[in-house]
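>> received
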Amino acid sequence: MLMQALMFVLGLVALVIGAEAMVRGASRLAVSWGISPLVVGLTVVAFGTSAPEMAVSVGAALSGTSDLAIGNVVGSNIANILLILGISALVAPLLVHEQIIRQEVPVMIGATLLVVAMALDGGIGRIEAGLLFALVMAYTVFLVVQSRRASKDAEAEFASEIPTSQWDRHWGVQAALVIGGLALLVLGADWLVGAAVVFAKYFGVSDLVIGLTVVAVGTSMPEIATSLIAALRGQRDIAVGNVIGSNIFNLLAVLGAA
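>> returned
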């Protein structure tokens, strides 16, 4: 039990450090590539922080526990909206970009309704999963193309908002921060969830409850850490975009893979 407590603490530390690295790297890459931080939050950061959900749900599906796979996605999405946005807004008031209200929120709601419709017959088949994957790819390409067209002056617009240094001018350094941060996020989430599951079983909580609560919230820890760090650093577009993008990715890509 002492080892599990240590893993829990180390997991939290890895999440914080990983989130800081990813937000910093993604912010500077957004400026250098002419892509708005909102789109980076909706794509690179959101998809990256959803890696634990992908790993857990695919593993659950392969082991024959599809209820856990679906419960993980549903629970994570609920935690993303209620828990993560709530905590982030308590840390720093979040200004919601108009694009999120007009475009991303309807996409998220539409994806949710689509998944519900697909699951009405009791399952999601391979053809339906392929459709979900195709939709998330099309959505990502659309966002990037849209941002490039509408944000020709993005570098000048956001450069003053993001602190710079000599190293910030090297895109390779920022890419390394994103990749390294993502690795720490996934590792930290794995340690945290593993320790939490042991604690839950020790106190007699059922596997189903663990899957719908501890695992779901645990796999949302990267999103929590990333959005909190983004809010503290003033990158509120990334903080909000991370949540919305993660929910869309969970519904389309994670369920599609599982």
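>> The longest helix spans residues 2-33.
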